[in-house]
Amino acid sequence: MAVKDFFVRLRLAVKGFFVRLRSAAGSEARKADINFRDELKQFKIKMYLFLPELVLAFISLIYFPKNYSLLSIPVYIAVFAVTLAAMIVLKGIVLIYALDFTRDDLTLAFVAFFNAMIEIGIFFQLYIRTLTPNERIKLIELVILGVTTMVLLIVFRAARVWRKIRKLKLIKKLIKNAHNNPDGFWLAVSGLLFVGICVAIVVGKLGSLRLQIAMLEGSRLLLVLLVSALAVLEDRVTKPFPKVILSLSFAAAGAVACMFIAVTGEMGTILIVYLFTAFGLLQRGQYRLLAIQLFVLAAVVAFVAVFYGPGDHYYQRIFGLTSLPQVNQVRDELVNRTYLFPNPTRYAVRVDGALATRCEDFSFLNFLTVFGKIIGVVVLFAYAILLEKAAVRSDRMISSRLDPEQVFARRFSQYASLMLLSSCVIHAASNTTALFFTGVNMPFVSDGLTTMVINVIFLLVISCTLSRRKETSYENVRKDTRVSVR
Amino acid sequence: MKMLEKILAYLSAKKKSTEQRGKTLTIVLVCILLATAFKSIFPSKPAASDTASQIVNDRAVSSALSAMQRARSDLRNERYSRTYSGEDGSIFPGRDAVYSGTGEILYSEDTVLNSISKIDPARSRAMVCRYLYGDCDTSGISGYMSYLRQAGSAKYKGVDPVGCSLYLTLDLPLEDELYYLLKRNGIPGGCIIMDVETGKLDVFTSTSTAQIDNEPSQLTQLEANISGKAFVRLGITPEEAAEYFDYHRYHSTSRDKDGTIMADNYWYTTSFGLLAEPVDGNGKSVPETELAAVDFEAGCISPLHLAGTIQRIFSGRTDEPVLVDQVKDSGGEDEPLPETVSVQIPAEVTDRIKETFNTIDTSHGTIYYIMNDGSGVKYAAGMTEADGKQKAFVIYSQEDERVTMLMPCLADFIAGCTN
Question: Which of A100, A452, B96, B359 has its CA at 20 to 30 Å from residue B61's CA atom?
Fold first, then answer.
C-alpha cells in the first residue's frame, strides 16, 4: 500500500511539474491571477532545493578530470553522480510527501544548504583522499544510510509511527505521568540526561579512542536535550527560589559538562561546549553570567601562562602555536594556495614527508584551498547565519500557550542550532590557526559516521520545528479567536 | 538564605526582550565571522619549524639545524611577502645547476629524470641531486635541501632562476666503474667511497633499488636499513657509538595526542643535512622515558652512516660526509662553504676498533674490512690503502650476498682514481 501510494504521488508530482511548466508560459490573464503567481513562486522555490546538486555536478566535471587519469575519471564522476542522484531522490520524496518542510522558506533553505554540505563533504573525500578502499567502505556506509532513510520515509510515515508508539503500554504510562505531573516528569528527564552525560564521558574515557569520540559526540546531544528539558522546567516553575536556581541551570550544565570533558583531555570539545554556553547565555540575555564565564576563561589562561612553561603542551596551544608543526603547514597552505579563486589542481599537505590531508579536521581549510578563499568565506557566513536565524526564530516561537512538549521541541531546536554553530566557529578558528585543535569537525562536511548521525538528528528536529512556524502563528490566532468568541 | 537568593537572582537576571537579545547574538556572531574571514584571506605567517619540535642532546648539530630552520623560515617569509607584494627577486641565490668536480653537468632544471635510462649511472646521480637540491612538480618544491637552494616561485613567473652553481666532490669515472661493477654482475645494491682524510664522497651510487624496503626516495644510501649490530661487530660500546659515531646520539621529539613526549627519530649529521634513523625497528615513535630501554642493536643505520663511521675510525676525527666541493655564484666567484667542526677521537678507542677489522692484501694495497653475509642487508665495509690513498668504503645489497665478493676489487678501482 505504501509503495503504491508512493508511485501515485510520484505520478501526480511529475504531472504537476509539467502542468506548471506549461502554465508559466501561458496566457497573461492566467499570470495576472494572484493565487497562480503565488503557487508558481512556491514551485520555483521548491525547484531551488535541487540547485546545489546541479552546481556540484558541474564542479565535479571540472575538478575530477583535472586530477585523475583518463581511465579513472568516469569512475569518480559516476560515484559522485550516484551520490547526487540519491540526494535528489531523497529531496524529491520530501517534496512528494510534503512533510511540512515545504511550508517555510527558511526551512527549505536550511534543508537544501545542509544537504549540500553533506554532498560537498563526499566531494572532498573523493577529490582529496581519492577512492581508496577505506573511502569505498565509507561511501557504501553513507549510501546504505541514505537508502535506509528513504525506505523508512516511503514505507513508514512519522505521524503513523508515532501513533502506533503512543499505544504501547509503557509509553502510554509515561505520557499519562507527563500530563498528570509535568514538573516531576521533566525533572526526572533532566536528572536522567545529566547522569547519561556523566556516564557517557566516563565510559568513553575508559574505552578506545573511537569509543571516546563517539561518547563525546553523544554527550553533546545529551547536553542539548538536558538544557532543553531544564528550560521547560524553568518556564513552568513559578516559585521564586526554584525559578532562580533553574535560571542558573543552563550555565551550570555547561560548566559541569566542560569539567567532565576536561577529564578526557579533548580541548576542542571543551571549547565547543564553552562557546555553546556563551552563545546560549547571550541569547538568554544573562550577561552577568556570561561575564563570569569570560572571567573563568581569563583565569584559566592566566594560570597556564604562570604555571606552565613554553615547552608545555597547554602553553603552546595558547601562546606558542607556531611551535606546532601542523600550524605552520596549514599557514603555508593558506599563504601559497589560490588567493581568492577556485583552483582545481589537487594539493597535498605533508607532515614529515607523509601525506596528511584530512577530511575530518580540515574541512574549512579544504573549502579555502579547493574553492578559493572568497567562496570559502561566503559559505562560512551562510552556514553561520542560517544556524543563527534558526536559533533566534526557535526562541521567538516560544509562548506561554504551548504544551511542555512543544516548548521542549522548540528549545531543542534553538540549542541544537547553537551547538552546531559553536562547532562550526571553533572548526573555522582552528583551520585558520587562530586556535589549533584537531578533533573538531565542521558539521555535515567533515568525515565521521557518529557525528553525521547526530547532526542529521539535529537537522531533522530544527527543520520540523521551523516548518511549524507559520502553523504555530495560525494556531495561536485560532486559540485567540476561540477565547474572544467565548 | 535570602541573601543567597538575592545574589543568585542578580546573577541570573535576564536583560532585554527576546528580539533585542537576538540582535545582540547576531552582532557578536558577525564580529566573530568577520575576524575569521580576515584570518582566512590574510593568514598569519608560518614560522621556522616544519619538522619535529626539538632535538635533544644537540651540540654541533643544533647550529646546523638552526641554520636550516632559519633558512626555511626566511624562505617562507619571503614567499609570504612576495605573494602579497608581487615583488620579484629572492634573498636566496637561485640554483643554476649541479656539476661534478670536473665541470660536467649532473643536474639542472632541464633534467628530465624519467628520460635517463635506468642502466645509466647518471640517473643515480641525478636522483641524489634531485632529492638533496630540489625539484619542481605540481605539488611544489620537493627535496631535502631544496629550501637552501631554490628561488621560490620565481620559476612560475617566467623568471629563470640564475645563481649559484654547486660542484660536487664525486669522482665520476670511479663512480661509473663501480656502478657497472654492480650492474653487470646482476647485483642490486650500492657503493659509497669516502676519502679518509677529508671525508669527501668520491662514490655515492646505487643500482636497482627494487629490493630495498622503505625507499620513498629510491636512495638506498640514505635509507636506514643496516642493522646496528655493525657497531657490535666493530667492538664499539653504546657510549662510544653515541659519543663519537652519532649512533643514538641526537633524537627529535614531539608530543602525541595525550601530551606524552615521544622520541620520533635519531639523526645522523652530514654536511648536506640530517638523515633520519628510526628509533625502533618498526619505525614508530617511542615514549622518551623508554628510550634507554631500546636495544642498542635493534636500531638501523644507513650505508652512508656506516661509511662515515669507517671514515671516522681511520681519520680519528668526528668528520661529516662532504658532497659539495665548491659553490660559485652567478659571476663565477667562490661562495664560502659553511664550516664544520670535528672532534678528535681518543687514540685508544680507534686503535682498539681497528683490531676488529680483517685484512686482505691485494696487488694495489691492503684492505681492512668487516662483513655481513648473514641476515639483513649484506655488506662489506672498511678502508683500503692503495698507492698512498686511504678510502673508506661500503658496498652493499639487500639480499645478494655475492656483493661481498666484489670487495677485493675495490682497491684496484681506487688505485686508478684521480682524487
Answer: B96
